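Run: sequence + zinc ion -> complex structure.
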Amino acid sequence: MYEGLPDKRSSLVGLTDEGDEAWLIRGIARKLYRCPGCHGEVDIGADHVIVHYVRRLGGGDHHHWHRRCSEEILVGELRSLRKVSAAESARHRIEDRARKPAGRRRRR
Ligand SMILES: [Zn+2]
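>> structure
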């Protein structure tokens, strides 16, 4: 259903079992990262997936995943997954959401 996403125009957002938001955004690696899925390196320049967590109690963090690992490992664990525009998933908007606990956030 979401094959090929995230891309330049669209991101995905879903919920983890803990009730945290997980935003999946397409990125190009500017340095070497380690993928949490396979513990392998995400090469510089690689088209990959940035996963921003917005924690239920507030706060956030992000990780860099291989595209394939995010599809094979992560996406299946998320519920209420939906597509959003890249504008909605802009980094400053996600960081704003993380400033408040979920109950005090604007509804999406
Ligand atoms: Zn990986």
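>> summary
Residues 67-74 form the longest helix (8 residues). The chain has a mean pLDDT of 95.
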